[in-house]
Design a protein that fits this description.
There is one protein chain. This protein is mainly β. The chain contains one helix and eight strands. The chain has one helix at about 95-105; strands at about 10-15, 15-20, 25-30, 35, 40-45, 55-60, 70-80, 85-90. The termini are far apart.
Length: about 110
Amino acid sequence: MVKPERRKRVRVEFRADIILETGDLSIRAEGSSTDLSLGGIFVKTDERFSVDAPCRVQVVLSGTLEPVILKMEGRVVRCHPTGVAVTFDAMDLDSYSHLKNIVRYNTDNPDTIE
């Protein structure tokens, strides 16, 4: 039996450098996001994080003269052998605008983006 999809936000695969920090643990995962949405991200990593740990996420966008860095506050919601899922709790307006455009340009159905 196939489980119904419970997530409401559109998720896209997007490769960028991700910096994930919780308390005393900080990792840089190069090109390793598989699910990115306006509500969170799944970061591929071997590191283990505590579920419910508050964290900071930076998505580093290169390809321009100066890298653009999206900064989000969130918390770890799930750990998996291949990575960690983070939900976003807060971000500045510029980060939200860039994130919304990333999701919009990488989905098959851009009209569904809030």
